[in-house]
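# step 3/5: fold
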Amino acid sequence: MIEKKTLKKTTNERSELNEIDNNHVWHPFTRMLEWDSSEKLIIDKALGNYLIDTEDNKYLDATSSLWVTIHGHRHPEINRAIKAQLNKVAHSTLLGLGGVSSIELARELAQVTPKGLSRIFFSDNGSTAVEAALKIAYHYQQTKGNLKGGKPLKFIAFTGAYHGDTVGAMSVGEIDKFVARYNPLIFKAHRAPYANCYRCPVKSTYPQCKLKCLSKLEAILKKNPKSIAAIIIEPLVQGAAGMITSPPGFLKGVARLAKKYKALLIADEVATGFGRTGTLFAVEAEGVVPDILCIAKGLTGGYLPLAATITNDKIYRSFLGTKQNPDAFYHGHTYTGNPLGCEAAIANLKIFEKEDTIKKIQPMIELLSELLAPLNDLAAVGNIRQRGLMAGIEIVQDKSSKKSYPAKQRIGERICKEAEKYGVLTRPLMDTIVILPPLSIKKTELRRIVDAIKKSIITITKRSN
C-alpha cells in the first residue's frame, strides 16, 4: 500500500497514480474498456472557481464539479464551519438521538423552502432523496390519502427524466442507457411528455400549442382515476436529458393537474436547487409549492454528501399512527443528518444571505445569455437552452433537420476534451455541451468559458464534416 504522503506531482509519482487508477478505480458512467488514466487529468487541488491538476495546471470548473459547487472551492466560511465541527463530533446517528447540527439545519431549511414545507428527512444524495420521496408518497396515499379506486398505486414521471440510479429512482427515470438493462428490477411508471420545445413530443410549436403536452398528462390522470400516488418532475430544467428547459406555465400546469386529481407533486430539485435557475428553488419561479421537495447536490455548497426530502405537516402526520398503535417511516441511512454535512449546509445558506447571492447572480445570468446568443449562428449549433446559470448547447450535424451526429463520433466528448486546451473543464450530455458554473463565477471567467466552448465546437465539427 502506498502512503498518501508519497503521492506527489513528480513524473514517477504521476505514473504511479496512473497505474493505481487503471488497476483499481472503477469510474462512474465510464466505458472502462477505453479508460487510460494517463490520458486524463488528475485533480489535486482547487481554489475558487478553478480546479488544479497534478501538474499545477488550472482549469475553470464550468460544471461545478458535477453541478454541486455553489460558492467556489475552499470557501473560507464553509471551511471554518467544517473544521469547527471536527472539534466536536464528526458523526452521531439520528436513530434514537438528536443532533445539534441537524436540528439547526432543519430550522434553516424550513425557513427558506416554499411555505408549508416544514418536515425534513435527511439522507445522503439525490437518489436517496428521491427514494424517500417515492416511499413517503406511496405510504401516504395508501393509508391517509383520498385514492380509493382499488387499483395498485402508480407514479407519473416524464419523458427524458433522470432522478438517480437506485432502483426506485430508475423506475421514474427514462434515459435508456441508465435504465434499459435493469428493466426487470424496476416498477413501471406512467410516462407523460415533458415540454421539450426544440424536439416537441407532441409535434407542436410553442406558444401556439397552448401547452398541448399538458393534455397528455391529464389524459393519463383521467384514465387512472384514484390510482396515481404522485407526479414527479424536474422543475424548469431536465438536467441529464440535455438541459431541457420547459416553457413558462408548464410547471404550474403540472401542479394544477396534480391537485385536481389528488396526486401528490414531487419536485426533484437535486440539480435545480440553490440558485441554479435564478431563484433559490426552481418552483418559486411559477409560485408552485410541491407536496414533497427533494434537494441534494448544492445543499452543502459542494462539500459533502447530504440530501433532504422535505414535506408538509399533513403528510408527516400520516406516519404517526395513534397512541394505541404508533407507526413510523421505516426508512433511513447510517449517515442521516451527518454533523459535518449539516454544518457545511448551514454555512452555505448563511453565505446566500450574507452575500445576497440570488440578487448578485442576476447580471451573470444576463451576461451568459448575451454570450451564448452568437453561438446560434454556428452551423453545428441546433439549440441553446438556458435557465439561470444552467445552459446546454445542443450540437447537430444538420441544422435544418435537427439531425444529430452519429453516436460513434462522440462529438460532445471531443468538444469538451478540446476545451481543456483553453483551461476549461466541462462535460457533455451526449452531444449537448453543458455550462453550469459555480454561482461565484466572475464575468471574465464566464466569457472565457463560452469562448473556449465556441472555439472547440468550431474545431471539432470542422474536422467531423
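# step 4/5: annotate
The longest helix spans residues 443-464.
# step 5/5: archive (pending)
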